[in-house]
TrEMBL record:
The lineage of its organism: Bacteria, Pseudomonadati, Pseudomonadota, Betaproteobacteria, Burkholderiales. Keywords: Signal. It comes from Pseudoduganella lutea. This is Peptidase. Residues 1-27 form the signal peptide. The keyword Signal applies. It comes from the Bacteria.
């Protein structure tokens, strides 16, 4: 099943970097699949621009062996939305079990998920707990390395949980009639994780949002996600 996650921004030597206002010359070089994904993500990117989130788009000329189709990185004070479609079998299969006319809404939700990462890191909140929250208890591991790995997985899981909620809050805001479809797909992705409490096991947060009514109507999607995310942090790991 697909994974969508924050990644460290790789060097742009092998990538094509552009601003949100893509040139027509660049657009002509995009593949049909890249064009579809960017078109589906456009409403999310347009909203991010109104918030002055510093997002660049990178289209890799060739995907690496472990690249996911869509990911977010951060370098030089800017967020990097990375599309790794070319030579990436997962780019073709990630939505293979979804009927064609239902795919764009899922791509849009994935884009919202990634922009959720950008929002967190641009505000200086990456891996930070909300005000008033502290780590409780004492974890024990066989080695310091395992202890650090567990901490990293826990921090990543929290960020993934936040961004999953952003994707759902966005869907409720923009496409409320499609909420159940997006939620069901995301829940299946997370239920298919190879192990519980892995870095992308966000079910503690997804179970808080089985319907769109859980999000406060007066707030924006990031603020809506933040409120529900804090509740999920109270669920014992």
């Amino acid at each position: 099943m697909p994974t969508f996650s924050f990644i460290p921004a790789r060097a742009a030597v092998t990538a094509l970097l552009l601003s949100l206002s893509a040139t027509s010359a660049f657009a002509a070089q995009l593949t049909t699949l890249e064009t579809r994904w960017l078109a589906a993500a456009a409403p999310v990117l347009a909203y991010a621009k109104t918030l002055n989130l510093p997002i660049d788009i990178i289209v890799q000329p060739k995907a690496g062996p472990n690249d996911v189709p869509l990911a977010m990185g951060f370098a030089d004070g800017r967020c990097k939305m990375v599309l790794s479609m070319r030579g990436n079998p997962n780019a073709e299969t990630i939505l293979a079990d979804v009927v064609d006319d239902q795919r764009d809404i899922l791509i849009e939700a994935m884009a919202a998920h990634e922009v959720g990462h950008c929002w967190r890191i641009a505000r200086g909140h990456w891996h930070a707990l909300p005000a008033g929250f502290t780590e409780a208890g004492q974890e024990i591991a066989a080695t310091p390395e395992l202890l650090e790995l567990s901490k990293q997985m826990r921090e990543t899981r929290r960020e993934e949980g936040f961004s999953d909620l952003v994707a759902l809050a966005w869907t409720q805001w923009r496409h409320p009639a499609q909420y159940g479809h997006v939620y069901g797909w995301m829940r299946k992705v997370r239920d298919d994780q190879p192990a519980s409490h892995g870095s992308h096991d966000t079910r503690a947060w997804l179970q808080l949002a089985p319907h769109g009514g859980v999000f406060a109507a007066a707030a924006g999607p990031f603020e809506q996600a933040t409120a529900l995310w804090s509740k999920g942090l109270l669920v014992p790991e």
